[in-house]
Structures
1.
Amino acid sequence: MLFNSHIFIFAFLPFTWLIYFYLNKSRLTEMAKAFLLLASLFFYGWWNIKFLPIILLSILFNYAVGVSFANNKEKHKISDRLLLSVGIVFNVSLLAYFKYVDFFIENINNVLGSEIGQLHLILPLAISFFTFQQIAYLVDSYKRKTRETNFLNYAVFIAFFPQLIAGPIVHHQDMMPQFSSLKNKIVNYKNVILGLIIFSIGLFKKVVLADSFAIIANNGFSHADMLNFFQAWITSFSYTFQLYFDFSGYVDMAIGAALLFNIKLPLNFNSPYKAVNIQDFWRRWHITLSSFLRNYIYIPLGGNRRGKNAMYLNIIATFIIGGAWHGAGWTFIFWGLLHGLALVTYHIWSQLQFKMNIVVAQVATFLFVNITWVFFRAEEWHDAINILKSMFQVENLGLVFTPELLFILLGFVITSLFINSNQIISLLRSRNRINKHIILSFSLLFAVALIFIQNGSVFLYYEF
């Protein structure tokens, strides 16, 4: 089920909200939680019910390992490190089987000239997200940072529908106290209004902005070998803004939907195209993934504890893994490598104490990110190369004033000058009451978004 669908907005979300709070009001709190779990699994299974056993298997296995950590503390039957290793191997193997096995077979065939048949597996929805979330949970349990012995609590933590499909990646110790809080079991009308406002902003980003940029980007990438200089840059900029508005729109809708249930999801975007260096960009873009990569991959690899050269290798390795997490393809891996090399370059630059004008730094960072997104988007390696060649063939300008150019300028204005959703939430929370003019303004935004809804317009990160 899609956030940007009429059935979700007008049926699933209000029905789930009403029943959840009705059960809580009737002091049937465990039944309310069970209902929320069933609703979340229904939400997940709506996309393809064949994937439901996979997520249930994953939840059951990781819950059992987490409980084993808790029991092992008292009985010492098995090494905690062995338990953790088994848990991580299971999660990585499950992800690798569905996401990478055909990629491995294809490359083996290319190298050896063999003809091993591919399995043509369909990637289960959200497997990348719920796998990373559960790996984080196991590591936190191993370190005794969190503990969960109630299966219903754990299942809700993983399956809670607002963040299930594409994040943010959340931590058990941040989420479960919110579900246990008595005040969160009562309707909070300020949270309801805030949630609807942020959901409306996200919906507008997705169906009005992202889906409009998608038309331009898809047309450009489907004719990658025919673009002139101007068209190539329009194509790359269009995808840069499509990806931002699509994913940040999803996150806004997730945060908004969760707020209806008095659950506060973590910050995941903070105006990333305002970044003044590549490190700043990764502190603003997909923040929960960046935190996961840092805490559960970069630091365990050694971080910066073994000298500069080892640190640089750890940075590059972490970003290659991050690239591969996004997709089973050499373009994703190369995209990760480019960002890893850029971050290493930034560290060396900083150590040499070089300075750059802040405007120049912001433009340079944005252009680097825009260029590397070409590899992220291209379906084939040669498509990316063709577009990049056209972007730097200045003799073939083809410069004309088009409506697409105006739309690109709009993208620059919104991402560079406007306040973001997090700042809007902060401003609205600081008010004692949200006046009718604000509510009317965002109601209009929601109404416009409804006009643009195209059922079936999938979020980009559903593919990862």
Note: The mean pLDDT is 90.
2.
Amino acid sequence: MTARRFLPGLLLLFVGSGCAALIYEIVWFQLLQLVIGSSALSMGVLLGTFMGGMCLGSLLLPRYVGRGQHPLRIYAFLELGIAVFGLLILFGMPLVNTAYSHLAGSGITGIVLRGVFAALCLLPPTLLMGATLPAISRWVESTPEGVAWLGFFYGGNIAGGVAGSLLAGFYLMRVYDLPTTTFVAVAINVVVALLALSISRVVPLVESLASDEDVETSAQIPAAWAVYVSIALSGATALAAEGIWTRILSLLFGATVYTFSLILAVFLFGLGIGSSLGAALGRSVARPRAALGWCQMFLCAAFAWTAWMLTQSLPYWPINPSISSDPWFNFQLDMVRCIWAVLPGTILWGASFPLALAALASRDDDPARLVGSVYAANTVGAIVGALSGSLLLVVWLGSQHAQQVLILVCALSGLLVLSTGVDDGVKGSPVAGTATIVIAAAIAGLLTRTVHPIPGILAAYGRYAATRLGEADVIYMGEGWSATVAVSRLSNGVLNYHNAGKVQASSEPQDMRLQRMLGHITTLIPPSARKVLVIGCGAGVTAGAVSVDPVVTDQTIAEIEPLVPRVVSTYFAEHNFDVVRNPKVHVRIDDARHYLLTTNEKFDAITSDPLDPWVKGAAMLYTREFFANAKQHLSPGGVVTLFVQLYESNTAAVKSEIATFFEAFPNGVVWGNTNNGAGYDLVLMGQVEDSKIDVDAIQRRLERPEYATVARSLQDIGMNNAVDLFSTFAGRASDLKPWLSDATINTDRNLRLQFLAGMGFNLYQSDVIYSGMLAYAGRFPDELFVGSPETIERLRSGIRREQGR
């Protein structure tokens, strides 16, 4: 038949469609996170809206598009519609940003508004995406052979998603920007649509496929509801597991954009393999319903396998990622480890969808309605699983108990299908079948006992867990909405605060020096820093240094993870002046970018100490637009300071951070923090107006009784006076312009920094980076400092000493 000849070609169209869809998903999530924030709440709203739109699309198309329409033409118009909305979202996002920033509020109102704006942007294109599979399904019959092709189409769509995830994450967005990435997806949609229209002209009539055998009508399928519930539970466990496993794997691999693209690609790869196997199995087995049930039961064992690998095996593989200077070797290793851990479960989840179609298939059914209803049930379950898994189960129960619950849900899904609808005309012993089911359920219960909690060493040191065994005592570990945090104590009493699987702050001398410098420069340089915003709480040392300045009367800490200020900072109360309990300090749980976007407050000073720029999402706090927005929230004479790390980074990333900051603050200054004479990290400072730093005036303030705590804080880090503090000068924007000539500016439209930093987060080149920068910073800034001749001379000597000249 003519129609049959083009089925392999349709499979290729679905590959292209899936590729474009994943590219859009990555781009749209990034664009909308810039507007409504990247907190766990915002991500939940985005994910729920995205998947909800696909669910509605799969349900609505069969009800509003008649069977008389050519399926390929409908499919082509859907693809063109997706392309149009892709362009509208790209170019309309500035308008969305402006409207949202004027209307956004806090509390329930803020949550509702997040949902409204996400729905306005995502529902139209995702409705069209969800309708593509039901639309094309009308070219086949609801028979075993037809359903098999639907399973292959679904698998091809997922295979395209694998390609789209890798293409966007590892190439398009790394080399180009969001508009270019969007244009590629639009081009794919247009090509797919044109090919579909061309095929529809060759085969103008909708033809039916010959069936292998007659099947019963849907009205005669016993307990069809159980299949729908099972496939919904399958979707729930799949997305909940993806969220939990991604959190653990991001500790093990490093939470870069590359890691998330890699994990998503492997997950989709397994689903694609499973869907193809399930499609072939659904065509050949006599009881696809039973096959679906056993797929869900086998998931219990696959779940236990992955849980064991992630907590008891992979963290202890003898791997040191810093051995290789080429990140691509580590990416290959991470890919292998990810496949080894998660592939079994993803194959079984992928096989479940076509088996559910086969279990419900009937010759008299509208294929679009069949596919739409099964797809909708699976997607509803996926929405519930994605939101409950990452936002509720992990926070309430921890990843160990959350995975145990999911194993039991898999068992329930399998038992539900296996124990209902037994009147299928297939002979067998009901007693033997019941005994087998009971034994399988008991085994599932026992498998939950094999799931272990995340090892403290993994939460603390992440990808270096195997190399740090026995070095520290992990005294606290907690799993929050958006991060897994830990506190460890070394044998010499040093405390470390861990987030994203690495040390983010500590009581080590070099770290205390940086954190105190960051806080004190922020409050001492402005003429009157009464109102201060601190971005990122961490161990609270920087915020504590800000809080002890007697001029500060109102301090806000913007922290994205509720666990951090509530629990972790308690361990550092001795080092952070118990800042969280200070009555003049107010903690706002929100993405700092979203907080600044939606507040009308002005600040005398803003200091930013976010997560490392290679952590996915953190680069949004290093963009030209964010720095410009921070500048607009400064009062006259205000100051912005920013922490920039040199370790676990590369020259390109550091240049990007500094050059982007100087775009907003052309009068910017760099202060250096060294360790054993070598570069370690930096503090960037920008001012609203060009103003001089009166070193003598600041010294007189430090000598006042009310500044005794500030002076003692500086003395604790080896800075006995203002000259010592400002001797850390390491260059001005004008001096470093030649060094920064090839720097990439990090903008909202490219977020290039996260890709640059992700390529160097296993490197330790801080000394090389710092010495390269200092080669351009030999001039003493007479236009920056004022003071007595004696003070200026001491400052000159101090700067030369700190720079090793």
Note: Residues 507-802 form a domain with the Rossmann fold fold (CATH 3.40.50.150).
3.
Amino acid sequence: MEPQAPAVVAVVVASDPGPWLEETLAGLAAQDYPNLSVLVVDNASVEDPTPRVAAVMPGAYVRRLEVPSGYSAAANEALEVVEGAAFYLMCHDDVALEPDAVRLLVEEAFRSNAGLVAPKLVAWDDPQVLRQVGMGADKAGTPVPLAQPGELDQEQHDAVRDVFVAPGGAVLVRSDLFDALGGFDPAMVLYGEDVDLSWRAQVAGARVVVAPAARARHMEAASRGLRDLSRLPGGAIPALVLRRRHELRAALTNYGFWHRLRVEPQLVVHSVAEVLMAGLTGRRESARAAASAWAWNLRRPGQLRRRRRRLATCRRLGDGEVRLLQSSSTERLSGLVEDAFDRAATHVPHRQAAAGPTLPPPRPWLIPAVWGLIVVVLVFGSRAVLTQGLPAVGTMARFPSAWHLLGAYAASGRQAGLGQAGSAPLAFALLGVLGVVLGDSMGLLRDVVVVGMLPLGALGAYRAARPLGSVRGQLVATAVYLALPLPYSAIANGRWAAAVAYGAFPWVVGHLGRASGLAPFDQDGPAGPRRWVGLGLVLALAGALVPAAVPVAVLAGVGLVLGSVTLGRGGTGELAGSVRALVAAAAAGAVAWALAFPWSYDLVSPGAQGSAVLGVPEPVYRAVGLGSLLGFRPVPGGVEFLGWMVLLAAALPLLLGRGWRLAWSVRLWWVAILCWAAAWAGGRGWLGFAVPEPGVMAAMAGAALALSAGIGMATFEADLVGYRVGWRQLVSLLAAAGVTLAVGGAALQSVSGRWGAGTADLSGELAPLLAPVRPGYRVLWVGDPRAVPLSGWARPDGTSYAVAYDGPGDLLVQWPPPDPGRARAADADLSLAEQGATVQLGRLLGDLGIRYLVVPTRQVPSIEPSPDLAPPPRLVAALSRQLDLKPVPVDPSLQIFENTTWTAADRRPAVGSHRPAGRALALALEGLAWAAALALAWSARRRPEDRGEAAGVGDPGAAEAAPAGAVAGGGG
């Protein structure tokens, strides 16, 4: 008696099947395998497919589900209704097997002792085109196809081999293995269940092989949009979102505990990198899918734990061994980078004239080469900063602990100045949260925030130039912005506001361009109020760190309007677009003000000084010169002419541009001119009101002219190619030489590894002196605003004064209350001493708890190139006459006087106008406002085609069966 062949049950999951169902069933009916049964699980189709099944296979068993479910849950019905089967053949309803396929799969399962065996899948309409011959997967669970899209079948993949994934469509699986693993993951309604099952099978010690001799045609109905997916659980979810969810779920489930500790941080980094890369390349759907995958999985911790426990019961292979079977590359990020290069190489400049010669498209390696060089230079230039840290010089104070910042933000009063009441700045909350994320490594956070403004500004310039439609233009704008001397002198001299403005303002300029709705910034659809929220978020974040960012953004909007008025030839349409940008800047400023409430209210409340927003103005006699402003070096030190070089590239479209290129260059130059003029005239007191510090104004001018330089490259591509060699080409060569020289000068700044910053800071210089006998004393700083390391209040003689606790002060005193309050008494006492009305200033200051009075004469202690910023001689002479102030020699750049009559200060913060319960309510409302603003900004970024996005974009290796129902079993 011949032994009976092992029983195989083909489980076909059908969901509103199309005309392909009959061909699928006919393929199963024609099999030459002697012990095959067929179970059709109908996933609650609108039309009962039982008559269609009976017409082709009268012996097939049909199991109908009442409610639609995913493919995985439907296929798992086999565990309930099938008994005695040795193998399950899991099939979609659009797969047609060749007559010997089942027999060959079973034979290979015994020959290779495999748990899962996959056939060769070919195209439904053209069997010569390969679909899948097994798949790989990377550590993040992303499938890696082994056959290229559209690859012809020339028997090049016909060897039996181990693979990491048996692709969905048709796969033979041992029934005992399927039962031990609990079947497919029912939460994976569509896509990715094949990766997850194959992964778990190998963890359990089973082999996964592909048997190419067994062939099957695959329709891929879902990928081709032939299947209605709106009846999936959860509705018509975009296909990419489902894939990312399920890939992450597989990774979070299938690694063991210790391996997850190592892999999960990498998955977070991969997701963040994907979001950034997708944002830069305009793939917003990819960014949304990567972010939402974490949110979806983190909402289901119980499911993940249960599946981990079940897998642990059958684990036979360690994660290290499984990792060897996976792909070593990161398929998802590699695909995004390749897509970005493909777009760059084939992109045509926006509205470029079709007639006439044009430059050849850039090489695909141009973008990675330039960005790779940028990354190398930035990392090389920051190497000592990241290992040794930045000194606490200028206004770059040390950060207190994250919990201290958050506690100060939540408190109902402030310990700043002399402890007057007021709301804490929004910066405390932002930096406190970041500090918690970094494990309270506040020194690292400070260095990352400061040095991180360099790549942040470069990314902003690259993104702002994207609508130009010129890859070379984007790279030129990025290179020009990095070539500005401003950020490096700001880091070297400790100018917090200038460094932060450098990182933020390219993003502001890009938002203003899109808000105008003028070509070429009209590609994202019409501008409207919802887009103001995005700019408002940028200004809220920048304004929290540098309040002057908001008025400077409005000033940029005014510059765009003046540029359109100057053009005067574009009709009311162009002027209306610039007015839209100005209105957007003003409205975004209001959004930023609302998001920073109630601190923002204190900035404009009665008694508030303008220095709270704009900073203390520099003395008129030390106002920055026009040459330094034009050279983007408003902070002393360095060579100005290197900054002048970028003006050549920015002026190129003024000379050669046509159409929108000329118009936008004029507008951007007006932005720069307005910023320069305000900084130059305001520094000389000609405007009658204070203006932001020159470094902040220069940052906005630099962002505008970097974009103009990118337009210059687009001009060269679109407007210059048709001309014969002449003065135009000569001007372009001079502009290119200027940019090269400026970039070289910026690259030299990286040699020190500290961007020119020193190593000595105030903490080191003052530590021996200011170590308190007992805590509770204050330090009064007075002198030139550029030398005083704290943000304070202005005095009539052009100096500034500020108060710190127990030493040089930290971040908590960098945002003083807008109203000096009781601190005015210290200013009044200083005035009495200057007028000769007292020789016992110490007694007057001692009543305020002031133990030391510090007068800095240089911006950075003990650094000789730092310019002399000594205060007026009258102040120093008055202090020297005081009988109760004892000079203490410490550092040549500091004149320190010890008050011999001081009394301990009350360190308790003043209670504000709102009680703790009211403060808690204000914090809750502020959190809701931020959530609403983020949601509005995100929805405004979605393109119209994104909003109608369907879930039918296929993945070559994903199972695209519709929501599955139950699975059949048994016998005939």
Note: The longest helix spans residues 694-719.
4.
Amino acid sequence: MLITKEFIQGVKQKNDLAALIESKGIKLKRTGKVYQGLCPFHADHNPSLIVDPEKQTWCCLGACKGNGKKSSGDVLAFLMRLESLTFKEALVALGAKLPEETPLDMKGRERVEILTRTVDVYHKNLLESTTAQEYLRSRGFCNPDTWRAFKLGYSAGTLAAKAEGGRLKAVGLMTATGKERFQGCVTIPLMDGEAVVGLYGRKVGGIGHYYLPGPHHGLFNATHAAKSKEIILTESILDALSFIKAGFLNVLPLYGINGLTADHLRFFEESGTRRVILCLDSDAAGVKASESIAEKLKLHGIETHTLTLPAKDPNELLTREGADGFQKIFEGLLKKEEEAAPSHASDNGFHIFFDDDQPEDDPHAYSRDGRKYVLESIPHTNAARLFVNLCLYHKGKRYPDRLDLYSARARQGFINRVAPQVDAEPRTIEEDLIFLIEKLEKLRDKDKADAKPLPLQMTPQEKEEAMAFLKSPQLFDAIAADMETLGYVGEDTNKRLAYLVSVSRKLDEPLSMVILSQSGSGKSALAEVTEKLTPPEDAQMFSRLTPQALYYLEPDALSHKLVIIEERSGSEQADYSIRTLQTKRKLTLAAPIKDPATGKIKTQTFEILGPTAFIESTTDPSINFENATRCFEIYLDESPEQTRRIHDYQKGFKSEEKLDLKGRQKKTIANHHHAQRLLKPLPVIIPFAKHIEFPYQKLRTRRDHQRFLNLIEVIAFLHQYQRPKKTIQGADVIMAGIEDYTMALTLAKDLLAETFRDCQKPLRDLLTQIQQMLKKKSEKEKQPVALLTFTRKDVREFTGLPHQRIKRLFAELEEYEYIAVEKAAHGGQHRYQLVAGPEQAAALAGLLTPAELMSKYVYTTGRTRH
């Protein structure tokens, strides 16, 4: 695979040039449409570096011109010259993942592997070193759980014996003289997602901060910090760790006062950071750095506040006051800051500033060069319209208007009216309006982000309980018992399968399920209890879906989600889109849309990403064949015994038991949410997959076979903390075991056997009841069953089934020729005769028992396990 122009363009679009330049410590100032700053490539005293944010290009107008070196270009050219990088190295430095065939990508993976192994060695050293442990305790970090959570380590100088020195030098772990770079340091890994990409060291018994050579890559504590829109920014990693010790997880460290990197800015953008609290050292350098960083963050639309602690730095405050005292002091400073901050907005107001000029006491206004724009209210933006009530003030005169900012014609009309009146070029007024549009759209996007529920934070105790649950040898039994605690009694097989369908949303090939049963049997209850046990951010319930409903969701609204449709009759029109999402893992719709700027019709493409797990319920057993082959069809227990179990539970919930039960239910739900959040999205390998035998007589088994393999996969995935793992092609994978095959066979053999029967379970059950009714009638009337006739009323009275259900099932029995009808003339009573009895229960022939499969696997491979 080649590095294409499209690939390079995508990398450049993700990296703002001005942001990158500022992350390298170069201050930029807005001048008109461009930024200016001191050129880093020559001794520049008068700003000669020009950055065009619209074109994403730079150039030097000073001594760089004509010196034979490149004095202009894009973000890649700037980085290559500044840090002497090759083209591919610059791509990687900007966060690109190069195609696997390129040597540089192999080098990148190898680097991560070496760093990961080194972090493990250093962590083991820490747990064995009293010197390193005493140092951490002296800095206030006494809890070994903290050491383990962040993989803190200690370099004892023995790394050379663990791997080849040349590879360690290439990564930077060893110096050119053969000495460990971090020898005698407590170490902390820096992460990019799950990958170790950097390392920080702090000398034990000395001073100095140590990093790997080259630009800083990776962040500390980004996973926890990403869950908050407000970030505390500290000067060092130990300062950030001090905040975490005091209970503040929304913290990120810089790498010194000049250590705001492109990784930080990318993090702020991707996690939607709205507010940063700067808590750097209280010395003069820290205060000056806070001002500089605040200016940089302001360019990215981030609100900043600076807090000064009553100590040299956060770590000193922790060691002096302890975690509780630290927390109390910092929360007091936050409260004081909020009380002192002026209110800039009314209930529905907003404010936007051009340059550094704040408008005069008007929360709905922004100003520039003597032009003051006032909005009477915040508009609600959508894809087609952006109406505003806008008033422009200039030299004591007022120019009000109401216009759609998305309409080029409306904007031009406003510009033509006001530009001559305010002594401004039409282009200048257009820039004002475009700026306003961008700010309003950002406001809309932030509101959407705030509306999304954030995953709950887990306490150490909650995490321990959830992990114990996932490691339980009787995990399946515990799931069934917990669903009974929530009110769903009996139905052990169906409960387990529904839970697995929910968990499968995390995989690339999730399962789906349709619950078929008559009204009042508990279909909705099973769907609801499954939804309760699924983390709320991963579940979506719909009462009804229109044909095009799914196409107009946010692109990732259904990605790795569980979708529950309460009653399938409300979604039949959306069958096609559901089937497509189940099969292709995405939906694509091309629709004609009117362009609000030009008024012309254009084709717009909407793409909704999967994969998605589905659970539907219905009273109609006649499911579209195309849908049925994509999901498990389950039937609920409609027996009197199950009804009695439900009655017993309902009585208990109205007695004193409910006082204890409600508390248990709340704790059960929370524990399942935490447990499912702990499941890592790792792929599953079924080592014995090629030895599984499956019937192939019917065409539909092509999909049934795939569903059976996916069922084994999700069972192993759920038990990932009980299954062995391997590293294959640089990635961790879960190895399924024969016990997963056993569970899948137990759950699915009856469901899969249904695919080989002509009539479905409801029909077979009714035939059995008709046969029982006729047997009694035969004994009473002394006539053979074959000669007896009956009416729908007879069957209704014998079975207790409702009229509409009897009527629908009789029509299907006639179609399958299990009963014959003698139609009466002139609306008389029809009489029926039994032609054939119910099908015999058929086992799913062809599937091996677990013992047979294991014997075949061992015999073929010569292995004893996996």
Note: Residues 681-757 form one domain.
